[in-house]
């Protein structure tokens, strides 16, 4: 039975099976049972197709239940046994659990359980999910998966509970990312110190402020040779990618679901780091050549950002993903990564910060400036994405058709000149006919050109849409920490809190502040390199393209010289 629904967010289709929807648009849903996070229905323009279930709410009469909001369920679907994935971003195809034929047997890993099932947040900037819900919060609730209190462990502030008669109040909104991420618990000293912390990530002062200490063993990793493979005697198919890290120069082969597993571990662990989003999934056509090539290009960009990040590149789970070739060792490393205790708020315990003093207000001003910058850049990236996407459509459709029309018109002129043989000049007729064919060729060149320039631009823009969408929640963590510092100092001034305890809160706030500033520094360094490369590549390809067009036209022009 058809149901009425309302779109919560914008969604831009990217293939013929999908339809675009606009925020607040009225929709007709053919069935409320989603298929791996996708619903089939009709938009207000009469177009029929698929769109993400997490982007709509189904409207019901007062006599029934309110509405079904798929945006709060993992993968936008009632299924909870599927691999946890992000909801789709506006203008980017859905990252749902359609991939690999819903192959959740994981026979190649001999492990049906992939990652901890985590609650999903409402979409953030650009429609991407807020990463904070995907981090395990080190809550005071001991049953939470990311929190493992042990009696023998010492409190971070080394103070007994008897000295804490008055403590900083906890946020009333227990659903804010500041609370859910566990950063509130960390700031208040409620995340216990581990007896032994094996991993350490250092922040040092650079010329432009705090920065992550570089990876002492930098490397790159190629992504090549996407190959369709089968198992179960051809019943199930998938694409494998050849990964070759430069530090070992020995290839491993990974499927997209392996990337997806790693991506979820990264979100699970790194609270204050903007983890690059994986390339999107799509409901249909995943074995088509164009889609495979597009995914490979975007995985190359994703891998480049991973290997260049001083922290992410050193993560043991990432190294295991890139280097392990033995099946038994792979399973052990996979389970070890899933049992990692230094995740979420506990990850902050692994960060060593400089001793340099930073004024709290100066840090807050710098964060506010970055917040304004990232919002403006986010809007600009979205604008350029829309313009470039429209230009691709014109290249493939409009420009080609217009040049074909022009070519046909020239050939029609040529054919008409043959109608009166006594006055017909074959050389002129042939030249005009060739001119028509040249413009048809130019039209085909325009249709093929996006593969050389605009696609690469859109790949970079898509990556930055994901990176920018992570920052609002990360900045919110810092804002929450600032607020706790101010509250604790006020309580200390009023004699309701020991100064030692207030100093502990300020010290832990410095960790969050330094980490965010280091992440800001890394983002700017990558932004400069990536956009320089993107613009240089685009302009070089444009020059080559118009030189080829010019050569075609000059060759045709010479046919008129000897008439």
UniProtKB/TrEMBL annotation:
Residues that bind a 1,2-diacyl-sn-glycero-3-phospho-(1D-myo-inositol-4,5-bisphosphate): 255, 257, 295
Subcellular location: Cytoplasmic vesicle membrane
Residue intervals of the SH3 domain: 1-61
Annotated stretches, region: Disordered: 66-90, 117-165
SMART domains (UniProt xref): PX (SM00312), SH3 (SM00326)
InterPro entries per the UniProt record, alphabetical: AH/BAR_dom_sf, PX_dom, PX_dom_sf, SH3-like_dom_sf, SH3_domain, SNX33_BAR, Snx9_fam, Sorting_nexin_WASP-bd-dom
Regions of compositional bias (Polar residues) in chain numbering: 66-75, 122-133
Gene Ontology cellular component list: cytoplasmic vesicle membrane; plasma membrane
BP GO terms, sorted: cleavage furrow formation; endocytosis; endosomal transport; intracellular protein transport; mitotic cytokinesis; plasma membrane tubulation
Membrane topology: Peripheral membrane protein
Similarity annotation: Belongs to the sorting nexin family.
UniProt-recorded name of the protein: SNX33 protein
Lineage of the species this protein comes from: Eukaryota, Metazoa, Chordata, Craniata, Vertebrata
Gene (name only): Snx33
